[in-house]
């Protein structure tokens, strides 16, 4: 998967390459790798491994590897909760409780059709200063609606919009939203997870 700038940007080359690989020794676990540029040969931004067992999920940024639970916490439901990413003096707050249910489409033939319907309301990212509690808006992520729209053959676009204040944290914003979306969209299997963690 590639993360592309908008078509009207001065430089339209891919900014990030995202790949997913199965862990061959644990077939229920997948490794997602984020690299700069358009290929798997770009500079590695980070990677994370997640599977059915949440306790064993890990994230690696540079040479720093840790359990995902030590950098990411959640309050509320897994779909509509609030996520806190704390890593290296950076506190990102992802608000997934959005109530905006909208559809933007000039025509059904639009190339950059962005749908935001039902359970796919925008996720908003803020940087929080833990001392002053001040919040700065960094990004908005919108994922397309599923079900009926896909059956029509419309090419749907996921949209990550990063503010000027968020540009210096783009790598961690992207890595954290990929992890959060993976957590949000993975069906809950509490009983199965308990058996695997035992």
TrEMBL record:
Protein name as it appears in the record: Uncharacterized protein
Organism superkingdom: Eukaryota
